[in-house]
Amino acid sequence: MTVPLLDLHQQHESLMPQIRQAFDEVARSGQFILGRYVETFEQQFAEYLGVKHAVGVSSGTDALLAAMMAMGIGPGDEVVTTAFTFFATAGSIARVGATPVFVDINPRTYNIEAKDIEGAITDKTKAIMPVHLYGLSANMDPIMKTAEAHGLKVIEDAAQAAGARCLGRPVGSIGDVGCFSFYPTKNLAGMGDGGACTTNDDELAQKLREIRNHGADRADHFPVVGGNFRLDGLQAAVLSIKLPHLDRWCDQRREHADLYGKELEELAITTPFESHDRHHVYNQYTVRVRGKGMRDGLRHHLSACGIGSRVYYPAPLHRQPCFTHLGYDPGSLPFAEEASEQVLSLPAFPEMSVQQQDEVINCVRDFFLAE
Ligand SMILES: Cc1ncc(COP(=O)(O)O)c(C=O)c1O
Known about the structure:
Aspartate Aminotransferase, domain 2, Aspartate Aminotransferase, domain 1, 12 helices
């Protein structure tokens, strides 16, 4: 039996009649870019998160860019973030002309912590950008306190964490702005690119709406330079259909995580961090495998069994060629470097069957018991 890392077919199969109908409606309406389908989704997503505003944008990357542009972050400014994340987090900081300042991760949660952020703050720092990696919220209360103490903005990179919560509060509703991705691998996924910025700040929301549309505050009038970061109606219509299922899908991922946790417990593997105050939504179910060559060995073994897995992420961002000029030497952020050599994500998509999960568990067991 093969088990892909992610299988969207089943999810789409059950929703296809609704999605086809929505495509027909959007096509007939001609509301292809922004317009009423986007507005409806924005209202639904804001309500889901309990925030005042959701601003639909073209991708998670553009959500981060738009957020920083709306806050006036640019050349000469620093944004403190994690070295262990998808490239877009730091790429967006560099694209607005600011400097990403990388801090190391907590090796257990893979997220950055307030105490490390504190040490990276300078008089050029304008914002903190924590990432809720794999669907686990960063420890937000201390981060918010640090930001407040230093007068900094907090931009949550919630791209992987729609549905996650920290002390009962949805991620994306805690910082000054939350940035979401609806890329097809995400827990709430469009059928193409899409994203959203979320905020309780009326002024920031207005700026975001302008910036996603070239900076226009009304037709043909551009007080600032923005971009084309608009969400389209077809994506919004799909997202409106999927949003009511998000919590159930997250719960299914959590059930898979629970079973993995029990079944893999006695193996030489570290399963993900779970804590009662953080509702993990397992966009990735990521284990850590210590020992030279062991992670890659497990990956090859899984692949030989027809099981999908993936390394998120094989190189931390401070060691990427485009950031060499920032001067981070090998060993400068040791936990991020070590994680990139040891992490492996296993299938945990909501519709994964019991048989499929058994197959993964047995294959992982075989690998360790054969050692
Ligand atoms: C942590 C993180 N930030 C940002 C992004 C960028 O999102 P998108 O691919 O929608 O541009 C992603 C998505 O892959 C991500 O995982």
